[in-house]
Design goal:
Largest sheet: 5 strands, mixed, barrel
Radius of gyration: 18 Å
Strand content: 15-25%
Number of helices: 7
Helix content: 25-40%
Distance between the termini: 53 Å
Order of helices and strands: HEHEEEHEEHEHEHEH
């Protein structure tokens, strides 16, 4: 009888932080880089930034690192990349993101963030492709995340772990980003569970409670980053106007196409922001 190999993060008796430290050790061994100073999770439309921020030292299939899985979403890269920045610092670029709607549990959703923290990163840059509620925004426009509303009804924090989220998305880093591009707007990101797109009524609810951006990632990862003591910069690529705001039905193919169309511009922008860190 063959044994079934399971992800260690699925076993509640194992510490997710110990697994993250093990993953960080494997990354250090495979890349030859003992410490990564910053980390970037590159969502839809942002992937080319990895080619622009510096010299790639090593690229690792994510499945070779404990706790990681191959991405389930078309348009996401299933690798981890170590990049030497012009400053001499090192960045860990995470192309393998696990979404909450994949039903692998919150531990797997935030494993990449915890691994980045264990690898030495003090800054976590989280990017995504998302729907815009503001009618003045257009597909292909990057915006900063100033805060979030978590509608997943879940949290990566376990037990009596109380973390202040007052300034979760760093004002310092947002100011730095606007120093690179003064036209950057910002808004509140609302994470829904997915994978279905939000209904027009849900979008109006998000708007009524203070949201400007809707998507299916980022908020849970940002909470885990704060728990780990990291400074967080969040950025969304508006790939479409949200349901009920957009005059046409939504499709994932159009989201991917919008990301590809904007990729060169927003990746160059992100590279300039990283260079300013």
């Amino acid at each position: 009888m063959s044994s079934v190999v399971t992800n260690p993060l699925d076993q509640p008796d194992l510490s997710p932080f110990e697994i993250a430290r093990e993953a960080a050790g494997q990354i250090a061994e495979k890349t030859g880089i003992e410490k990564h100073d910053i980390a970037l999770t590159l969502g839809s439309g942002w992937a080319k930034a990895a080619d622009l921020i510096g010299e790639t030292v090593a690229t690792i299939p994510a499945t070779e690192i404990v706790g990681f899985s191959a991405p389930a979403v078309v348009g996401h890269v299933g690798s981890l990349r170590s990049v030497r920045l012009p400053s001499g610092k090192h960045a860990l670029v995470i192309g393998a993101r696990t979404h909450y709607y994949e039903d692998h549990g919150v531990r797997r959703v935030v494993h990449s963030v915890r691994t980045a923290a264990a690898a030495g990163a003090s800054i976590m840059i989280l990017t995504n492709g998302a729907g815009g509620i503001r009618e003045t925004w257009a597909p292909g426009q990057p915006v900063l995340i100033s805060d979030h509303i978590n509608l997943t009804a879940n949290s990566p924090l376990e037990g009596a772990t109380f973390i202040d989220l007052t300034d979760l998305y760093s004002e310092r880093l947002r100011d730095l980003a606007r120093g690179v591009d003064a036209t950057l707007d910002e808004g509140v990101y609302v994470q829904f569970r997915g994978p279905h797109y939000e209904t027009p009524a849900e979008v109006q609810m998000a708007k009524a409670i203070g949201g400007h951006i809707v998507g299916m990632s980022t908020a849970l990862e940002a909470i885990a980053a704060r728990e780990a003591g990291m400074e967080v910069l969040g950025m969304s690529l508006i790939t479409n106007l949200a349901a009920g705001i957009s005059p046409t039905p939504l499709s994932h193919a159009e989201v991917i196409e919008a990301g590809k169309s904007a990729e060169s511009v927003i990746s160059a922008l992100l590279a300039r922001i990283v260079a300013a860190l």
